[in-house]
């Protein structure tokens, strides 16, 4: 089956020389949730903005393939891209406090997403907005439509953002940490909603998160990002069953599991921070924080297969965890 | 909102009182009215008579409260030189000043806002720099000088426009353009700065993610958020144009309020000076209040706060 979104060798660099994204590849199928995981500053958000062609000025992108269905996004003019954005291709941002325009009502901002792309009256668009607000769990949607962003809490604003992204029934939704600002019950409700929409509409979801609990719950496929690269990519089951890249293993060790973790044993952590990657950077981006680093890691990090459809970017052989344990 | 308005009104009254006192004291410090009315040939006796007739022999405090009490009832006194009620003198000259100020502001906004938007959209490019240099040159040229250059080129050499008076509407063009010139650089820079902030904000990214057209993003989503400081400063600029156009009115021989102020100051016509200063204070207060109210319309956060 042809994927809804196909990305190969996507690169983004900033005017400062920083290489924020260094050749990532991924694909999202219809009805599938693909999670992009990694810590702050690893290039998750920049990658998603690059796909949408929403990068800030001074950032440039390039790719071998950037395709939405059969449309080559690299060849579209900004005008043609704008026709896709908000319609078939929608995005939710992680900053709910600042992502809505303070000068306009919720209703006005939601309605224009629909009237931009469809021949529909404003009144009908507002009906649709009210319906979606109700679906994301907002009570009294009619009242909310007439309110301004500053009258809403962060959680409500994020739900408005989610509802707004759904106005045109998108085929691909890129959600950048959509539930980070929400409390746990609302978070569960939003995730359930996204799953329902996937079932009903065949929505393809590229979900960016640092929360492995959400990955376990939502993802069919996972790409783990580190320092601008996808360091491991696998199905969700394979990734949790056999994490192969040292960084992925480190991430999983950071999660406390009730009952399984011993109270007196320290919880895992990965020392250090994501390095800044300049134009001349060579080798593995994780080597300074990796317990298994060797001299060769300063030169290269080869792409290896742990299993079919399970790739990782490291010098270590696929069976190294077993060998280390033995 | 009501509390906000009440507080503003109270503040306005206090400002008016302060201006009254300052205007009154300053005019008394600047010379003896009786001497200038009496003329150079007058005897000391004539001057004493005039002083008594005009009530200038009373203590200053009494004079002030007498004048303030009348002003509060709308009676601004009579001009010593024109022998006519001051209110009438101002009212006669107001249409010229108002037309001049409003058309000057309109021209300034029509030029400054589009230029500011363009400069912000093409920030740090050739367009931005070119607009910045034009604004700098505009700011560096004194308005009386621009006025004279325009008179020489457009009025005398090319004879396109009348060089003085406002017998036809064309007489307003040059003075209004000169007034606008002095307001454009500040308004342009404010628009540019506000638009740069707005265009870099998260809600503009959201608007782009919705696929909105660039025109709508810039004019609807960004401009409204960038407009507030522009509105505030435009109100002050208009106040300046209504009261501070003395030089322009002199250069173009327009008999507006500014000209009246200049004339009365140079001839020690206290009641007129005091009235014009009071009038301008009221205009400034009114305009700032108007600007605050317009900003409350622009930004809903100000309405509920």
In a few lines, what is going on in this structure?
The complex is a heterodimer of chains A (326) and B (305). Chain A is an alpha/beta fold and 326 residues long.
Question: Key features?
Answer:
heterodimer, A: 326 residues, alpha/beta, eight-stranded mixed sheet, five-stranded antiparallel sheet, 11 helices, globular, B: 305 residues, mainly alpha, 14 helices, 78% helix, 0% strand, flat
What does this structure look like?
- The complex is a heterodimer of chains A (326) and B (305).
- In chain A, strands 7-8-9-3-10-11-13-12 form an eight-stranded mixed β-sheet, sandwiched between helices.
- Chain A is globular, with a radius of gyration of 21 Å.
- Chain A is α/β, with parallel strands linked by helices.
- Chain A is 32% helix and 22% strand.
- Chain B is mostly helical.
- Chain B contains 14 helices and no strands.
- The relative contact order of chain B is 0.13.
- Chains A and B meet through α2, α3 and α6 of A and α9, α10 and α14 of B.
Rg of chain B over CA atoms, rounded to whole Å, is 24 Å
What oligomeric state is this? heterodimer
Mean pLDDT of chain A: 89
The helix count of chain A comes to 11
Main beta sheet strand tally, sense and closure of chain B? none
Provide the succession of SSEs of chain B: HHHHHHHHHHHHHH
Q: Give start-end ranges of low-pLDDT stretches of chain A.
A: none
> Count the helices of chain B. How many?
14
- Low-confidence spans of chain B: pLDDT under 50, at least 5 residues? none
Structural class of chain B: mainly alpha
Q: Gap between N and C termini of chain B, in Å?
A: 9 Å
SSE order of chain A, as H and E?
A: EEEHEEEHEHHHHEHEHEEHHEEH
Number of strands of chain A: 13
Quote the beta fraction of chain B: under 5%
Beta-strand percentage range of chain A: 15-25%
Give the helices and strands, then pairings:
The complex is a heterodimer of chains A (326) and B (305).
Chain A: E1 5-14, E2 19-28, E3 33-37, H1 44-52, E4 59-62, E5 65-68, E6 71-72, H2 78-84, E7 89-92, H3 106-117, H4 122-135, H5 141-145, H6 154-165, E8 172-176, H7 184-201, E9 204-209, H8 212-218, E10 221-226, E11 229-235, H9 236-241, H10 246-253, E12 303-307, E13 310-313, H11 320-325
Parallel strand pairs in A: 3-9, 3-10, 7-8, 8-9
Antiparallel strand pairs in A: 1-2, 1-4, 1-5, 5-6, 10-11, 11-13, 12-13
Chain B: H1 2-29, H2 33-38, H3 44-53, H4 60-72, H5 86-121, H6 126-140, H7 143-157, H8 173-199, H9 202-209, H10 214-243, H11 246-251, H12 257-266, H13 270-298, H14 300-304
